[in-house]
Amino acid sequence: MTIGAMFGAITSGxxxxxxxxxxxxxxxxxxxxxxxxxxxxxxxxxSLDLGRLSTGVGVxxxxxxxxxxxxxxxxxxxxxxxxxxxxxxxxxxxxVAYLLGTFLTWRMLALTGIIPSxxxxxxxxFIPESPRWLAKVGQQEKFKSALQILRGKSADISExxxxxxxxxxxxxxxxxxxxQDLFERKYARSLIVGIGLMVFQQxxxxxxxxxxxxxxxxxxxxxxxxVGTTIMAIIQAPMTLIGAILLDISGRKPLLVISAAGTCIGxxxxxxxxxxxxxxxxxxxxxxxNLAGILVYSASFSLGMGAIPWVIMSEIFPINIKGMAxxxxxxxxxxxxxxxxxxxxxxxxxxxxxxxxxxxxxxxATIVFVVKVxxxxxxxxxxxxxxxxxxxxxxxxxRLP
Length: 401
Hints:
globular, mainly alpha
């Protein structure tokens, strides 16, 4: 699935630029439906793998295009909240899948995956295309009509429309963006922020911990991992909701720092529990300490590190390079997901305590990266954010708000 997501990530930006944000979401739904049908009807490993590959492609596309679409249609004072709602829905989906998986067969569970894809296909007929994309491709009437629908019939959109139009026209005077243009000095900080956040998000160990949570709990001394994984599923949604509410109040950076600090503490607690187990010290405390560490990690990750990198990714790239840059950032995210989920068991067999201490160190480094490099984007229009980032380089980070 993660390999399929990497393929989806590579193509997501180009698809979203060519056929629009809605068109990309249609493509994602088609891949997901085909994949889930193949999984549910599979009679051997090949059809099962192809089904997972197809769902991965769909997930890779939609993980890029949904945050981009939400950021482009929302007012700046609601952008953080509404973009984070995407992660909240992901958390709810994970929780529902955990619960359904306790009493459905895997074939039936695969069929339930078709339902949200079908709902999305139908829902896409009733939402407008991104006004910023319409302005970019020169569809002026549709651009203003879509913006009016999003802001309400009686809303005055003239100022916002003029800002979007002016910024789009300034970008049109530039040569058509190429892949090598991403690495120009003016885009350096945007690229460092986008890729850096995804690297720290994934290499902090989230998918190793989430995918193998049950095995982690059993290794720590629990007879079964069901209780721990159920509690993990339950706390994800409310913590993500709290993060969504706080995002446009506290800002992106403070919430990222708190979230990264929490994941660091959670990893250290879990690592310490395995360290005690390895030395036969305080064995009666090991399971409870391990559960506490994993829950602190999961809750802290859901608070900020799960959603905010996607929020910032959707805000920092100018629309002329957004497709290519977003694809690259999403590819890095899914490559990290694959790398951690593939290697986790090998690292853990070397040293369970060492594994969590390594993850804790990476989470600690995240705090430094956020404080030193990541800009605060709360309360600023996309054009303001992108203009300020494009006019500086990483060394100027301290002079930006």
